[in-house]
Amino acid sequence: MISIFNEVLGKEVKVPESPKRIISLSPAITETLFMLGFNEEIVGVSAFCARPKAAKQKRKVGSYNTVRRELIESLKPDLILTITGYQRPLAFRLEGLPVYPLELPVSVSGIIDLASRVGLVSGKADKARLLTASLIRKAGKIKKLKKKLSCYVEIDLGGPVTFGSYSYITDAIAYIGAKSIYSESRSEWLQPDMKYVVEADPDAIIYEAKMYSDFSYNSLLGLIESRGWAKLKSVREGHLFMTPGPLDFLAHHGPSFIFEALPWLYQKLKTCI
Questions:
Q1: What gap in Å lies between CA 77 and CA 16, rounded to an integer?
Q2: What is the pTM of this model?
Q3: Which label site among 55, 103, 213, 265 has the fewest CB atoms less than 10 Å from its CB?
Q4: Is residue 252 included in any domain, yes or no?
Q5: Are 82 and 23 in contact (CB under 8 A)?
Q6: What mean pLDDT do residues 137-155 have?
């Protein structure tokens, strides 16, 4: 065992040099662990861990912020990884177990750093450096928009949620040369003011449905109509975009955000110019 200081808990935490039984309660961390070569060592995940496909076959020990402690204990983990943000209190509720919370990224570079931190804590530092190098190369190839666009992003997380300046989503939009209409809000996430969205009249609207829902593009058009947004510039000009697939896309801050979501954002917003 080695001791690593944990900024979230404010104390040193003992972790195994080479963990053999890992539980990951963060989809982003789970994806990273698989990319670092872990598979058999992962004995439990949250119900929202769906990347890669192999994660779906792992034992589900809870949701994003609630777990079955007795199940976790029965699996005898030597390392439990969580994330902060909405999941922050969970690490403290797991006191007495080998839990190591990692900080939620607030920027594109933070997503890359998270991969590095997962590697350091799990004993895969060299592989993590290779992964972060590939993430840096990918991010570096993303082009910048030639025109400054305003953008509104909404994700259904059990209700409409948008993102402020402390969010990696807001930073990603800025990274490609656009600007979120909530970029000046000093928060990670917030409930959007629908009247403000009308006043801001963004160049583009990006919408992400709830994970695994059957919400379609026609459903989105119906939502836009019900809110009285049909006359917004973004709607009139066809700059209304829905993220692909049934999984969290922008709401996922694992390596696939750099490999998939960041290029998707650029390609979609480029059509607005």
A1: 11
A2: 0.95
A3: 213
A4: yes
A5: no
A6: 96
Give the lowest-confidence range in 59-68, 119-128, 215-224. Answer: 59-68
Are residue 95 and residue 158 in the same domain, yes or no?
Answer: no
- Direct distance between the N- and C-terminal alpha carbons of the chain, in angstroms, rounded to an integer: 55
Whether residue 72 is found in the same domain as residue 172: no
Residue 261 lies in a domain: yes
Answer yes or no: are the C-beta atoms of 65 and 86 closer than 8 Å: yes
Asked whether residue 115 is assigned to any structural domain, the reply reads no
Q: pLDDT tens for residues 58-106?
A: 999 998 888 999 999 999 999 999 999 989 999 999 989 999 999 999 9
CA-wise closest residue to 101 among 225, 9, 4, 233: 9
Q: What is the dihedral of CA 192, 220, 238, 140, to 10 degrees?
A: 70
- Which pLDDT belongs to residue 52? 97
161 phi/psi in degrees, rounded to 5: -135, 135
- 256 — pLDDT class (breaks 50, 70, 90): very high
Q: Does residue 76 sit in the same domain as residue 9? A: yes
Domain boundary among 104, 136, 169: 104
Residue 122: inside a domain: no
Q: Rounded CA gap, 182 and 165, in Å?
A: 7
Domain count, the chain: 2
Residue 167: give its domain's CATH number: 3.40.50.1980
Averaged confidence pLDDT in the chain:
96
Distance between CA atoms of residues 178 and 172, nearest Å = 9
What pLDDT, on the 0 to 100 scale, is given for residue 64? Answer: 80
Nearest to 36 by CA among 145, 142, 117, 109: 117
Domain range spanning residue 196?
150-270
* pLDDT tens digits, one per residue of 9-19: 999 999 999 99
